[in-house]
Prior knowledge:
The chain is of the alpha/beta class. The protein is built from 11 helices and 10 strands. Strands 1, 2, 3, 4, 5, 6, 7, 8, 9 and 10 form a 10-stranded mixed β-sheet that branches. Helix 6 links the parallel strand 5 and strand 6. The longest helix is centred in the first third of the chain and has 22 residues, at 2-23.
Amino acid sequence: MKIFSALIVGMFSAFISFSSVAADWKPTEDITIIVPYKAGGGTDMSAQAIRSVAEKYIKQKITIKNVTGEDGIAGVKEIVKANPDGHTLGYVNLPTFAAMSYLPGAYYKVSDVVPICGQNTETAIIVVNADGNYMMLEDLVEDAKKHPGKIKAATNGYKASYHTGAQLFAHSAGFKYTAVHCDGTVNQLAKLLTKEVDFICVTFAEVADLVLSSSPKLRVVGVFGNNRISALPDVPTLDEAGYYNKWYGTIRGIVAPHGVSNEVIKYYTEIFKKIMSDPVVVREHFKKHMTLDYQDNLNFEAAITQLDYFCRNVEDTIYKDEPKQD
Length: 326
């Protein structure tokens, strides 16, 4: 009986020891964070805002790998195919990540990644050239109604987040436009600045420097949401103008490939909470007009689920008669 009891105690001690080791998982190699867009876009800005500070907490070198192509799908494919050992993470941009998983040729599902945490929640805006004829949202709508299909908008990809924003705006305002699809926000901005298109839908952080400078190149004419942006108190919401009356924007966050262990998820969820609370990270977000909004893995998973539902249901309505244009 004593021998049996000793055996049980030994097994229990070994289990406790194993659990402690598993719970204390930490990365042992350099970490790669895959961003499915060019450097300089909103998702890349999110990653860069925490990279240098993250190394102080994680104690490993962190490399941001920008993977472009297929309007962001190429980068997501690389994320979902990565080794789920905890040394490769990725950024996703909602609702783009969910919406594009339904496109032919995407070959990934929302369930192919495991949520780690959300980082920021950004309200979408409508932007035009500062030296153009559109002083207010109504000017753009009036011109678009007079010339159906002539007005052009650059998007960050077919059915990507800012294409959906343009669709919501156009449908609610009752006009038709021509979508010009780009591979990410950087190319969207280039199209607008060279006046190849008339407006874009992005987030304020992505255009703040071009809007707030002493010689602004861009003008914000409308905000998706229930509240105006504090830095732009004179710019009305679309709701105030009588158009789309709900919040719309983008939520960005960190994910891992499917198959990653619970210990890895726990480690990163907790460590990124500390990283995103660091005063340097908070200041960096404020300086870049980015809205820091940490969500743990469960809340971020809920956000992904909600926007996946949005993509499967609401988007069918606004894209019903929308052709895929170049």
